[in-house]
Design a protein that fits this description.
Length: 177
């Protein structure tokens, strides 16, 4: 089974923006891969064009916000049942209705023989190569502490589900780093 890196299609779709002060409040004291529900109260945001180079500013069905997925109400309704065992859905009020940040908490191990960290001055600063253990392929959505939870990965099953439901806004890249 193929694993993909999940990315925002910023060339064509808007993304969620939550004001910086709110982000600081939400993330203060949080640990990657852990629940944010305790600090997630009355969060508002907006959908915005990503930058001046974007060709379009379409409203996505699914997007990315930092290292989280973001679901429109329609996408949430279709996918909640399949994803809730992998993390938590956190509501955000926007001018486009309620959207849902999906905090992925399903962490998986990497195949350390076929993965390589980028080390500078004895500190890991990135990842040059990543491969997952075979048991990771039975998950829909994956994060890992090997890359400090900095990326979202998914399997063919998740990608196919998004395609079958005709949900737009993501890019599925076979290049994992």
């Amino acid at each position: 089974m193929t694993i993909y890196r999940v990315e925002l299609n910023s060339e064509h779709y808007m993304s969620l923006h939550i004001p910086g002060k709110v982000v600081v409040r939400l993330m203060r004291g949080s640990t990657p891969g852990q629940s944010l529900a305790g600090s997630w109260k009355d969060v508002s945001g907006s959908l915005q064009q990503n930058d001046d180079t974007a060709k379009e500013s379409l409203v996505p069905d699914i997007s990315c916000w930092y290292t989280h997925l973001v679901f429109s109400k329609t996408a949430f309704d279709h996918m909640k049942g399949q994803l809730e065992s992998y993390g938590e859905f956190l509501p955000v009020s926007t001018e486009n209705g309620t959207w849902y940040v999906f905090n992925v908490m399903a962490a998986e191990g990497v195949d350390k023989i076929n993965s390589e960290a980028e080390i500078a001055d004895g500190v890991q600063v990135g990842v040059t190569r990543i491969a997952f253990e075979n048991n990771s392929t039975d998950k829909l959505i994956i994060k890992t502490d090997f890359d400090k939870y900095s990326r979202i990965f998914c399997t063919d099953e998740f990608r196919e589900l998004v395609n079958v439901l005709n949900l737009k806004g993501l890019i599925f890249d076979r290049e994992l780093v």
